[in-house]
Amino acid sequence: MLKRLFLATTALLFSLNVFAGGVVDKTEPYQMMKLVSEQAFARLKAEQPKIQQDPNYLKVVVEEELMPYVNEKYAALKLLGTNLKGAKREDVNEFITAFRAYLISSYAQVLTQYTDQQVVFSPEQPISEDQRISSVKVDIIDAPRPNIKLEFKLRKENNGDWLAFDMAAEGISLLSSKQSEWNGKIRQEGILAVAKELEALAKQPIRFEAKN
Fold first, then answer.
1. d(C-alpha 184, C-alpha 81), whole Å
2. What is the pLDDT of residues 10-28, one digit of tens each?
3. Rg of the chain over CA atoms, in angstroms?
4. Is the pLDDT at 187 greater than 50, yes or no?
5. How many CB atoms lie within 10 A of CB 124?
6. Residue among 32, 40, 36, 38 at smallest CA distance from 124
7. pLDDT tens-digit profile of 98-125?
8. Cβ-contact 55, 112 below 8 angstroms
């Protein structure tokens, strides 16, 4: 189940891609995601021969096409939450870097499960001028299995661009779940210890697994 939710997250995140020289207007979060989703999946299909030959190439694809549209710093700081109090700045910076690498590796691994899932967007909701947080609701069609409902969360930056920082799959926040998973270890062993663990996980090679 968790793998399906993570795959659905990746499917939606890849709708933030720039494909074939197209320009994405990041000041319009809903249109940004909707207009390029089909193109992003088309690129992933086109890259399959190279991916099959070298699964680690998926890390390159994620780095180049996904991460420019993710605010990993904001996400990492929200994940750390109260653990930021009294933390060393250098430890926090290392955690942010490690968290970014972990996201790249995690999304790359999940993309080995890609089987042409379809993204269906809910109607666009109005955004006020002073609104800083917005969300886009979608269904991931993964027949014959049940659809997955997602709420993708974005934050408006000072320059007017919107960047992704979290998502809720079937009501479960990705950041909240990771916070629950890592919070105890951060309290017991410190931010740096978890950062080192994430760095190790990020270095693991990408492998094809049986599709569930």
1. 12
2. 555 554 444 334 567 889 8
3. 17
4. yes
5. 12
6. 32
7. 999 999 998 888 777 766 777 788 888 8
8. yes
Residue matched to tokens 């109090």: 85
Tell me, what amino acid is at 155?
Answer: R
Secondary structure of the chain as H, E, C letters: CHHHHHHHHHHHHHHHCCCCCCCCCCCCHHHHHHHHHHHHHHHHHHCHHHHHHCCCHHHHHHHHHCHHHECHHHHHHHHHHHHHCCCCHHHHHHHHHHHHHHHHHHHHHHHHHCCCCEEEECCCCCCCCCCCEEEEEEEEECCCCCCEEEEEEEEECCCCCEEEEEEEECCEEHHHHHHHHHHHHHHHHCHHHHHHHHHHHHCCCCCCCCCC
Q: Is 177 left (phi over 0), alpha (psi -120 to 50) or beta?
A: alpha
Integer Cα distance of 105 and 81 in angstroms: 23
Q: Are 58 and 111 in contact (CB under 8 A)?
A: yes
Return d(Cα 122, Cα 30) in angstroms, integer: 10
